[in-house]
Every structure is written in structure tokens, then in C-alpha cells.
Amino acid sequence: MAEIGIVGLGRMGANIARRLMRAGHRCIVWDRDDAAIAAVVAGGASGAADLAGLVAALAAPRAVWVMLPHGAPTEQAIAELGDLLSPGDVAIDGGNTHWKDDIRRAAALRAKGLHYLDIGTSGGVWGLERGYCLMIGGEAEPVARLAPIFAALAPGRGGIPATPRREGRAPNVEEGWLHCGGHGAGHLVKMVHNGIEYGMMQALAEGLDLLRAADSKDLPEEHRIAVDIADVAEVWRRGSVVTSWLLDLTAAALAEDPALAKYSGTVGDSGEGRWTVQQAVETAVSAPVLTAALFARFASRDEGRFAGKALSAMRHGFGGHLEPKKG
Amino acid sequence: MAEIGIVGLGRMGANIARRLMRAGHRCIVWDRDDAAIAAVVAGGASGAADLAGLVAALAAPRAVWVMLPHGAPTEQAIAELGDLLSPGDVAIDGGNTHWKDDIRRAAALRAKGLHYLDIGTSGGVWGLERGYCLMIGGEAEPVARLAPIFAALAPGRGGIPATPRREGRAPNVEEGWLHCGGHGAGHLVKMVHNGIEYGMMQALAEGLDLLRAADSKDLPEEHRIAVDIADVAEVWRRGSVVTSWLLDLTAAALAEDPALAKYSGTVGDSGEGRWTVQQAVETAVSAPVLTAALFARFASRDEGRFAGKALSAMRHGFGGHLEPKKG
Amino acid sequence: MAEIGIVGLGRMGANIARRLMRAGHRCIVWDRDDAAIAAVVAGGASGAADLAGLVAALAAPRAVWVMLPHGAPTEQAIAELGDLLSPGDVAIDGGNTHWKDDIRRAAALRAKGLHYLDIGTSGGVWGLERGYCLMIGGEAEPVARLAPIFAALAPGRGGIPATPRREGRAPNVEEGWLHCGGHGAGHLVKMVHNGIEYGMMQALAEGLDLLRAADSKDLPEEHRIAVDIADVAEVWRRGSVVTSWLLDLTAAALAEDPALAKYSGTVGDSGEGRWTVQQAVETAVSAPVLTAALFARFASRDEGRFAGKALSAMRHGFGGHLEPKKG
Amino acid sequence: MAEIGIVGLGRMGANIARRLMRAGHRCIVWDRDDAAIAAVVAGGASGAADLAGLVAALAAPRAVWVMLPHGAPTEQAIAELGDLLSPGDVAIDGGNTHWKDDIRRAAALRAKGLHYLDIGTSGGVWGLERGYCLMIGGEAEPVARLAPIFAALAPGRGGIPATPRREGRAPNVEEGWLHCGGHGAGHLVKMVHNGIEYGMMQALAEGLDLLRAADSKDLPEEHRIAVDIADVAEVWRRGSVVTSWLLDLTAAALAEDPALAKYSGTVGDSGEGRWTVQQAVETAVSAPVLTAALFARFASRDEGRFAGKALSAMRHGFGGHLEPKKG
């Protein structure tokens, strides 16, 4: 059995520790919130008093998995690990970091004889039970050393049919973890994964919106069609081309409330959707769907509607139209 | 001097009559609203009691310009003219009609020996003074016969520099009226014109929105840039690549109120923007800008935000995110 | 056991017959191609000499499933069935028809005492083994009567986990067939399904293209990242948010050839992707992702590149740029 | 009369010098290409042997306008000027630089007592005759000092009608030059200008493409409409809503050759179109039109068509479609 340090015990970090311990691995954990530590220690982990304590509690060669909000918290933790770890140890960023930052950090750690792995971790709140899809960037040696850890976190083959013609390829890929390439490759693949996720989500959302609008009172009576959107989402789960986990989740939400009334209709976005569009711009790749998905979220939060006002001002200017002010 | 009947005395129809009368042409006018007739008669037109009376007051070969809201009102007026006019007469639809309807109507009128012209008329509330850009579809003979009418309505050369290398091309084009082609060609060209108009408007609106957001409180202090958007629009009117009439109108609106506070931010759309997208779909032409411009207007009016709710439901499903309800 | 007539024995029609016969149902089949009939008869069906013969071979109340290319072939077959069938019989269009055509046809058949069902059928070449997702529009009575047929064609529950909170809802939905609503509802739901399919496919394609481009020779050496796209698609099948049948198919294609060299890069489209965009325009729903996906296919086939030439002409005009002609 | 140093005598720099000299200003010029210097000296400028010589030839407080390709050449010239200039002097970047770089540079120069202005310069090859639209960022003092220079470069009021309600606003804006705000504001405004330019260009290009396709041989004969696109562009120049300089240029190109045969259809892009999209992403502004315009250019250059191949592979997977390889 292996041991690993885990820094950051939010929902993701805590569940990663739990899944590892279920598989028999030993976890030394730390979080700035003592209650978070206590909750994971109750599940069998050893708690550390601080980062230095966590490092001290691990036997060399050490592995420390940082699972913190992206930006300053992660940056600082990796920098501190750079001072605390010893040559041959490996610092892991399992959170959401831009791959260019990974390349920069890896070079800084390499100068101290340390390894660095960037791991895109997909699975969300379901990962504890379903397993995490792991997209790993960095040197081959620490990846090989940590294979038991990755195997424990990944979903495994489960009931998913094998893809034909994969003979001769690394079997761990089919278990749900992949050494994608050099530094940054893990987070690059995770970034693109999230971009695709945005696009697929928006495709589903637009389709459901079309079904809703098909019964609009503005349509001629003979062309209004009412469908039960919850049932539609459910039937598509069987044998259709759009079967997907996102559809499963959508069907579950619609089964609870077809009007989705508890949601506001404004939608947030995380860094990776934005980075994906910036990647498209930087590499001159046309990515209209991934971008439209991001912009739909921006538009959902546009309270000031200045662009719309500018359009109305132009229409007023040339046509005398004055859009009605809302009551 | 020529004479013409004008049916429909809204802002467009009344101003068309006025511009023709300024040029010395004779107008017989009718509208279902007596006050509208009286206003144009006060400017020198002859009023008719009904459509039959208007037709009777014209000498053959007659020309009757219908300037009514698109759809049923225009359809009915053209049908009635089909019964009232005599062979060799010409019925004109100067409004906003889908070009496929023009082709259908022209065939019906042709069977009765009547001509039909579809005329896309651009110029809006400014047309009376600035002149109307006329895009004409139909047979050559009635177009030639009505050239004096078109010349009076069109803006003329004005101060606009001539385009090089147009030697040998019809001079009327440079005066602002064009026989575009057969039936439907006038409204097709006007439809595409309006599609482009949507795209250009949205391009300007997005640009202004970017300038507004460049001073957002969400940005790091050192990267916030405040600009006076009214002055920016004004300076672009001189020597920049985006000089355009739409920019002139935008600059005027921003000079009045840089916040454009009298506009709601929700934006309507007319048939032609939609038809343009449908034309793109039918002819397999990629038209992402024209379509994005239309969808931005749809989104500005989306009160129910069902698509956004669906996105939030999916995010909640896989990540436990719950978007904040608006207060 | 039930019996049904099947008209049109292409890949879809023939496999539908086979799947029904496997479940013990009796099929009377016809196709204009005798060899197609013979192939299905070899599997146990009864062949008819023509449409009238097929109708005559069925006991009342009859059900005839038409599975022909959309447009004229289907239109004609339904019209002929309108003459051949008897009151209480049901004509089924299982192909790809616009829902407005369904509404029109249903009214015409109803006047003769006949039923009509529009059935969106998803499943493609995999349907024989995997089952077909059936989206059904029309009257309740013939739907209830044909439930055994639909149950045989649908995939059934399989290994797919049940959606929580569906207690009290019709169980057949979870087996993969849904009575969506009145006439046209089946094909409307199938149309939107295909629109979503286009969007999801394009999201995946753009993501893979970004991974390809991440190793572009145009990038600075330190920012080039090479990943094995076939392995990435495979790992995403386990535990990631984008797990989907389309991803399964993509992983299989990439496992065979990561360069996808046997495909040209030009992509066709069927009616339903276009109809979905037209539906969005008609119902004023912003659908940027579904539309971008369609336009990407149009653009992939744009040999003349006239829009690009127009852009270059403008750039040449204001900036003196002359885009290089391709050799 | 004022004097100014000009570094970089490509088309833009040389014409700026010429336009200034026409207005009576004195120009000291330098370029790494002696022939470029000689050509401008022949028009009345004084040539310098190197950057130090150029600085030495100017009287304090000096102004040096750098007009070089963006990136390293400009960066290096500004850095050298930082060493050569004296407190109170001003270094000007009139090229295309990202506004964040301006903020960085200005801080570095300020530490040496130097001023820095970022000037977005629009006008292209037409600027010499038509004047340049100047968008200026930086401190107020050097802007005021250089007002005669800006007035000479700007187009002036010309025949363009005044915008109503601008009373009390700075008159120079109506002459075509604007002090937009602090450091970076000039290039920010120019960046957004170029983004709008991309959007407007694409709107026009898509519209023309729709007109081209309206006569496609794939359409039913009765729905084919042939129009003369060169005449359409010309007539839109008079009285239509889309009148614009870009339309003027388009009409000129189409008058020369309606097929635009000398252009390849692949379209390049410059940094500012990309930066505009990145700005939208960073400031959470939905900018679908500006982005679609950029992506259309990317797509026009996509030789490998990997995204299209991925779509075809999926279609093949679920439907058995095999897209035809191009011959």
C-alpha cells in the first residue's frame, strides 16, 4: 500500500482521501480548517498540524497532492512545498490550473530536484463512488511510482464496453487514468474536457429550450406542440445518439421538477471554459460551439444590457423604433 | 411628370408621396385611416375614397405602390389590385415581403396581364430628406416606364465619391436605384441588406459593450481603463475603417446620453433578419455573424431563461453548484 | 404476437423488421427493390408484390410502417396508403419528416377515418442490436394498440441506472419509447434530438481539434504539448463529465486511426439539423450552439470561398494586404 | 510648427511623415533600411544615422513616434528610447500593441521621467490623403503639447455632418483625434475598433455570399435568383442603412471583378482581432459576432480539417455514413 499527503480538504480533496483509504492507502492530510481535517481523520487519515508537519510525516520519496482553489491558494502551496520537499519527492496539483502555469512551476521545482505532476481530475461530487477520471502531465518516473494511487482513484473498467482495436495500448487508460504527456499536458486535456463539457451542456440546454418554446402561445394554434420535457430527456437515455452522463443528470433534474424552478437562469463559469476559448484564439482553431457556450453564460449574467441598448438606439435612429421599457 | 397611386400612408408611405410630389409627380393616395389621407392631401396629393377609387383616378397604364405592413394587409391589397387593375398596369409592393411570396404573386398577376414589382426600400425615417435606396425586382418594361419615379425617390449621387471602374454600367445604380433582377430579386436584396444591417449593428454594440466593461469594478485596478464612449464613437467617424451611417447614428445617440438610459436593452426583430438566416440554412451558406446578431436579439428578450436553468441544473448535478437565485 | 407491414427495406427498415421478428412479431414487407425484399424474407418475413398486396395481407386493424427517404418517396407512400387502408388502420412514418408535414398528413388521413403516427427513430446502424429510441406523435388509441411493437423495437431498461423520482410516470419511457404528444410531436422531438446531436458532435470535434493544435509547429517550443488523442478519448469514457455514446464512437474511430485519414474533412448534413435552426428562428429561441454546428458543416463544404474572397478584397482595399493565392 | 522624430518608415510611418511635412511640420526620420530613409528624405525630412542620432537631432522636449511591427521590434525601440531620451521627452507607440504592454512600458519610462503615449492609428493606405483617425492614451500634458501634430495627421471635419448635441465637448474629437484616457486607452480603443471592423467585414461578406448562393444550381429553378453583386454593393452606397467605408471598398473591388478571382479565399488576421476576443473572455462580455468573424478567418485557413474528420468519423460510427473523399 502507498501513502500520500493531501493538502486541501474541500469536497474534492476530502473525497479523494476517502477513496484512497477505501483502497487501503494511507493519507496524511492538512487543511487550514481544523474541522475539515477532523472530518477526514475520522475516516482513517492522519492529520497534520501544518504543511511542514504533513511533509515530515511522509516517508521519502514523498508525494503531496494539492487540491485547492486555483490561483493564489494553489500557487502558494506549491511554492511552500518547493521549500519543504526533498529531491525525488513529487508535488501534485490536482486542481484547475492553467497549463502554462504548470510548465513554469515544473521548471522551478526541477531546479530543486523535485518532481511535479499536473492532474486534471474529473468526477465532481460523484467521484467518491464513481471514481475520478485522471488526466496526468509530467515526468514518467513519478507517474509510474504512483500508479497504485491513480488506479485506486480511477473508476476502473466497470460495465463500460471495451473500445475495439486498442490492443497493445496501455491498459490503465481503460481503467480511467492517463499519463497524457509532459508538464501541462494533464491540465491541458482537462481544460479541453471542460470546454467540451460547456458545449455539450449548451447543446442540451438549447434543445430543451426549443421543446419548451414549441408550445409557445405566440405560435398559431395548429402549430403548437406540447411535450413533457422530463419524459423526453428520459427516453433519450435509451438507444438515442445523445445518450450521455449530462443527459442522465438532466433527466434526473427534470424528473424532480420539469420547470427547474429552483434555478435562477443565470449561470456561472469557471476558468477552464475561458481558457479553452483563449487556447482556440492562440492556436487559430475555429471553436464556435465552445465559445458560444461560454458566451451564453456571460449573457445570462448581463444585467446592464448595454449592447442591447446600443442596438435599440441605432434602431431608434434609423427607423424611429423605440423599444418598450420594461414596466 | 408621372403619376402613381400610393396605398398605405404610414410613415414610409406618406413620406414617399411627399418626396414624389416635391419632384413634381402626381400622387393619388389611400389609407384606411382618413386622417392619414388628409395629412398627405394637405401636401398636394389627391385622396381616394377606396382602392377602387384610387385605381379609377389613375390613367392607364397605371402604377400602384402598396406600402403596408407585411403579411395579411399587403397580401390582401395586392389581391384586390389584381381584380381592379387592367392589363399593362403594374402593382408594386414596396414593403417587406419574402421573395418567395413575390414570385407567387407575380405569377398570379401575370395570368391577368398585370405587372408586379417588388421593391425593397431602405431609408427609414430619414428617407424623405436623404432619399430611399431602391432595390427592384420584376420585368424590365415597367421598371423602365417608372424610371422617373425611382429617380425622384432615390438619393441621387449627392456628395458620395464615384466608385472607380464602373464605366459602362447603368448610371441609375449610382443614383441609388437598381433593377436587381426578376420577380423577388428586389426583396431578396433588401432581405440580405437587412441581414447585414443586423450584423453590423451587433458588431458595433459588442464593441461598445467591451469599452464599457473595460472599466469594470471586477478588474484589477491597474487594468481598468475608463473611456468616454460618446467621444470614441465620434472620433471613429473620421478616417477610421468603421465609418458608417450606423456609427453616425450611434454617435448621435451617445452624445445625447452615453448611458442610453432610455432604452430597455431588450431588442425586437423584424421578419427580414429571420428570413436571412433561413435563407442561409436553405442555401447551405455559413452565416455565423448574421445569425449571432439575430440570436442576440432573441436572447435579450428571453424572460424565462429556461436554457440557463437547464445549464444550472446540470452543474448542480455533477458539481453540486447551486447558482444563486436573484433576490 | 402482433403483425405489421413495413414499407422500405433500406438499412433502417430491414433491421426494424428483423428486430420485430426476433421478438416474435409477424412482418409483411415491401420495397421497390426485389433483392431487398428477398433479404428480409430470408429472415422470416412475408414479402408483398406491391403496396396493395402488403395491405391486403394484413388483418384489420392494420398498421403499416413506412421507412423511406424523406420527401417525395415518403409523401407518396403515405398518400397511397391513404387510398388503400380502411377506417381504423394506422399509417406510420418512421423516417425523417418535418413535423408540419405530419400535421398536414394526419388531417388528410383523419378525414378518411385513418390514424397516423409520426415516429422519430434513433439508433442508426446499431439499432438492430442496441434497440431503437422511439419518439411517437399521434392519437393515443393506436399508440396503445401498438405497444407490443414499440416494446420490441425499443432497447428496454438494459443496464442503465434508473432516474430517481420517476415514480408514477409511464414505465415505457424507461424502456425507450415515448408517446410524445399529438401529431408531429414525435418528429419534433426527433428533430430537436438531432439538433442536439449536431451540437454535441461539434463540441467534441472542436475539443479534439484543440488538442491536435496544441502541438502546432507555429507555437513556441516551450508551449507545445503533444498528446495521444486516441488515449484521451478513451480515458474520458471513464468517470469524466463528457462520457457519452458519441465519445464512445469517437474513441473507437481514433483507436483505429488517430489521424482519421480515411475521412475527407467535408461533412454532410441532413434535413433535421437545418429544421432545428429554422425552428429556433421561428420560435425566437437563441440557439447559437446548434446553429454553429450546422454552419461548421456548411463551411466544411465551401469550395468557392466567396465570403473569404470578399474579406480579402476589403483588406486589400483599406490596408493593401493581398492574401497569398494558394499555389 | 512642431518637430517630431519618426522611427520606422514602412507604408504607415512614411506616410505619416509625409502628411506631417505637408502641414509644415519638421520630421527627423530613421529606419533600418537606408532606402526607406532616402525616400522620405526626398520629400523633405531629415534622415538620421541611427536612433541615437535621431534623438540628438531633436530639440527638447522631444517627441519620437515609433511605427514598427508589433512585438519585438517595437518593444526594443521603446526600450532604447528609454535610454536615449531625457526627462520631459515623450515616446510614442503608434503601432499595434496590446494595451497591457502599454501600461507596463509607461510605468518603466515614468520611472525615468519620460512620457509615453499609445496611439491607435486607423487609416491604412488611404491615410496620407484621407487623414488618420487617432486614438491616444497617456498623460494629458504631452497630448496637449502635441496637439498640432495630431491635428495635422487627423482628417479634420471634412464634409461629414456634425453630430447633434456635442456642444461643450472637445472639438478635436470631431476633427478625428481623441485623447481616450490613461496609458493603454489608445490601443484599447483601437483594438476594439479592429474587432468591430472584423465583425462588419464578416457581415458584409456573409451577405454577399448569400446573394451568390441565391442563384445556386442546387436550388429549384423557380427559386433561383441571379443578381449582379457589384451593382448591389453600389446601390447600397446611397441611402441604405449599411452605407459604410467598408461597403465603398467592397463596391470598388466588385466593380473591378465581381468574381474577386484574384483573392484566394483564405484570410489572415492580425493581433487585434484576437486580442478583442480575449478581452471579451477576460471581462465576461458576450461578443458572438466579433468572435465568429475571427473564427471564420481561422476556418478559411484550416487545411487539415481535423474537426470535420472527427465529425465524419462519428457519423460513420452511428449511421454508417462515409463522407466522400475529395477526388
UniProtKB/TrEMBL annotation, chains A, B, C, D:
Record keywords: Gluconate utilization, Oxidoreductase
Any single biological process term in GO: pentose-phosphate shunt
Pathway the protein contributes to: Carbohydrate degradation; pentose phosphate pathway
GO function terms (MF aspect): NADP binding; phosphogluconate dehydrogenase (decarboxylating) activity
Location of the 6-phosphogluconate dehydrogenase C-terminal domain: 186-324
Keyword Isomerase: no
InterPro entries from the UniProt entry: 6-PGluconate_DH-like_C_sf, 6DGDH_YqeC, 6PGD_dom2, 6PGDH_C, 6PGDH_NADP-bd, NAD(P)-bd_dom_sf, Pgluconate_DH
Keyword RNA-binding on entry: no
Domain of life: Bacteria
SUPFAM superfamilies: 6-phosphogluconate dehydrogenase C-terminal domain-like, NAD(P)-binding Rossmann-fold domains
Family: Belongs to the 6-phosphogluconate dehydrogenase family.
Cross-referenced NCBIfam families: gnd_rel, PRK09599.1
Protein name: Decarboxylating 6-phosphogluconate dehydrogenase
